[in-house]
Design a protein that fits this description.
The complex is a heterodimer of chains A (396) and B (253). Helix content of chain A is 72%, strand content 0%. With 396 residues, chain A is mainly α. Chain A is globular, with a radius of gyration of 21 Å. Chain B has a 3-stranded mixed beta sheet. Chain B has a two-stranded antiparallel ribbon with strand order 2-3. A two-stranded antiparallel sheet of chain B has the order 4-5. Classes of the chains: A mainly alpha (396), B alpha+beta (253). Chain B: It comes from Nitrincola lacisaponensis.
């Protein structure tokens, strides 16, 4: 059924070479600058210690979790229409997480020390300790689950158990990642007990954007080349869910913006008035990156067009990347003390090295994805679904 | 067991920054890596405008949020060292989460862009795994407590000059720089303070000078609402830090 995957042919090889070149180029720039200047090649500072590399990691980690949750729709909850994308979801979740972790590794001051210092010191009070535990489990379960699906085990008892374990692993990993920010009461812009819910939701939205893009890429942006069951999904349940996810994301942002603007607390209020809403790029990401896609997806005809779905997936992908950036930086831009003669927000623009890390992450994800499409059968689905061709909504 | 505390009398502080300089000299910190600095700020407008300043060391909190978030126990509160919060540079992975979690902004990641040119790290390139190696160095280097010059990629902070304080005779309660018997053990910022605005001693001894000052002069702790419970207390007017207002917005009050 995968004969129509254009990435298995020459186009895939070309993309593979291109993404490998971009990956190697950005890696050389990043490692060269880190080697010669250390983290002084970042534009972060002691006043604003977490910059774009952290936002990139956050973006990838949550997109991965989102894909993991999407995969659980058919594998855990029995939404059978989603079977045609289940295997690709699991694969993308794995490689996107690997890409994010690679970016994070180059952001840390002493990455190899982490390998022994975190497990040996067992600081269970630290959310970052649990991030290591849960994301390691998440990776393990994703790999295991992929192994099961690759072996054609869709419905075996073990396969289902691994699916459930993976689903729980994803919830724990991304929920805990949210609490790394959400538990910081000294950083009021982030402090939010419900932040895990926000991260789950927006994570699924970014995962969906990645899924739509890569599904079309694999089929040469031509829906006719897809298996009928996948065509049915891409013109039925999936775009509707994508629309709902974007709408929900906008609601979450609106709720955070309204409470932030209403608050007198300058560490929240000023972040919205003087940083987020004062930035043209933030407006662009909000209106063009999220609202425009939502409006497009509300229209039943537009929603099912290949070009619209592709445009929406790219816009949402970029829009949510900006959201992650402004979320991470926004929590730090108000100085902890008024200080200085000319109090102002802390300025931060990513450096060349930080951009190189971001591009490295993206190109690595792309590279691994093309490799996967080339050598694995990511469009596989259970025989019953494949033979049936089209999944009738009634049995889903 | 002692519990080291500091008292800073803002009515006596002149904002001269001698403490900042003494700390930098004592601990070989880079420009900008001010383990102890003095913040200046102003509030209100003429004719009732105020000018304030606030010396800011590490608060060595009783409930240090930086310690709780550290994934490797690199940063830890050492009760056997009077409750000082240290960073073990052998364990720090440079994730900077402690800098996010510290409400007081007193942690430093010196592997960052230099505050001033020329970059001291280029003038005195690092040797023996040090980030930089100036000709004069504090002889009491102890990386397990974050004392001395750090390696690259770790977080540094004020140590209450533990390398000095720990040498004091057993049972020392008041570290008065005017007392010849203990003056060598007084933290650098306290010893250098010309208007004698800083005091250092044992918070566990009710009769200690620091406790008496806190009691008599209504000592307060900065950002007490965070619950971190600093072991640094402020006396006098000026300890109330005004809310942040960007300069171009003027004073909303």
């Amino acid at each position: 059924m995968n004969d129509n995957n254009i990435l298995k042919g020459g186009a895939g090889t070309a993309l593979l070479i291109l993404s490998a070149l971009i990956f190697l180029g950005s890696l050389v720039v990043a490692l060269g600058n880190l080697g010669s200047q250390g983290h002084a090649s970042f534009n972060t500072s002691s006043a604003l210690p977490w910059g774009q590399p952290i936002a990139t990691y956050l973006y990838f980690a949550l997109a991965s979790s989102g894909l993991g949750l999407l995969a659980s729709l058919p594998l855990v909850f029995g939404f059978k229409q989603y079977y045609p994308v289940a295997k690709r979801c699991v694969f993308l979740a794995f490689i996107i997480l690997i890409s994010g972790m690679t970016v994070l590794a180059l952001e840390l001051g002493n990455v190899f020390r982490m390998l022994w210092a975190i497990p040996l010191n067992l600081q269970i009070q630290s959310a970052m300790f649990w991030m290591g535990v849960f994301y390691a489990l998440d990776l393990l379960f994703l790999l295991w689950k992929f192994g099961k699906l690759d072996a054609g085990e869709w419905d075996s008892k073990t396969s289902k158990q691994v699916g459930i374990a993976s689903f729980i692993g994803v919830l724990l990993a991304s929920g805990n990642l949210a609490l790394i920010f959400g538990m910081m009461s000294m950083r009021p812009f982030w402090f939010d007990g419900l932040l895990p819910i926000y991260f789950y939701f927006t994570g699924v939205t970014s995962g969906m954007a990645a899924l739509v893009f890569f599904v079309y890429l694999a089929h040469g942006f031509n829906r006719d080349k897809m298996h009928p069951a996948m065509q049915s999904l891409m013109t039925g349940a999936l775009p509707k869910m994508f629309a709902a996810l974007i709408g929900g994301t906008l609601l979450f942002i609106a709720a955070r913006a309204i409470t932030g603007l209403y608050s007198n607390n300058p560490e929240i209020n000023i972040v919205w008035t003087d940083y987020l809403f004062a930035s043209g790029l933030y407006h662009l990401s909000l209106w063009v990156g999220l609202l425009l896609p939502f409006v497009l997806m509300l229209n039943g005809k537009l929603r099912n067009q290949v070009n619209v779905q592709l445009l929406v997936s790219v816009l949402v992908f970029l829009g949510l990347f900006a959201e992650r950036f402004y979320f991470v930086v926004g929590g730090q831009v108000v100085p902890l003390f008024k200080g200085t003669w000319y109090p102002d927000l802390i300025a931060y623009t990513p450096s060349v090295t930080e951009w190189a890390l971001t591009i490295m992450g993206w190109s690595l994800a792309f590279l691994l994805c093309v490799l996967g499409e080339k050598f694995l059968n990511l469009s596989a689905m259970p025989d019953a679904i494949a033979k049936q061709g089209k999944v009738h909504p009634a049995i889903a | 067991m002692a519990k080291w505390g500091m008292v800073i009398d803002l009515d006596k502080c002149t904002g001269c920054q001698a403490c900042t300089t003494a700390c930098a000299m004592e601990n070989n910190t880079l420009p900008g890596e001010s383990w102890q600095d003095v913040l200046f700020y102003h509030e209100g407008e003429y004719p009732s405008g105020q000018m304030k300043w606030l010396p800011r060391p590490c608060m060595q909190c009783e409930k240090p949020s930086c310690v709780y978030v550290c994934p490797t126990r690199a940063t830890y509160k050492d009760e056997s060292a009077g409750g000082i919060v240290f960073v073990d540079w052998n364990k720090c992975i440079g994730c900077k989460y402690c800098m996010i979690a510290c409400p007081y902004g007193v942690r430093f990641y010196s592997d960052e862009k230099p505050l001033i040119e020329p970059d001291m790290r280029d003038i005195y390139p690092g040797q023996n795994k040090q980030l930089w190696s100036p000709p004069y160095q504090n002889p009491k280097e102890d990386w397990s407590r974050g004392i001395g010059i750090q390696p690259p990629g770790v977080v540094s902070k004020c140590t209450f000059c533990y390398h000095k304080v720990s040498q004091a005779p057993e049972g020392t309660v008041d570290f008065d720089e005017d007392n010849p018997a203990v003056k060598e053990y007084v933290p650098a910022c306290v010893r250098t303070c010309a208007p004698k605005a800083r005091y250092f001693g044992d918070l566990d001894v009710p009769e200690s000078q620091v406790n008496q000052l806190i009691g008599d002069k209504h000592g307060v702790r900065l950002k007490d609402h965070t619950g971190n419970k600093p072991q640094v207390y402020y006396l006098g007017a000026g300890a109330a830090v005004p809310a942040f207002t960007p300069a171009d917005k003027g004073d909303k009050s």
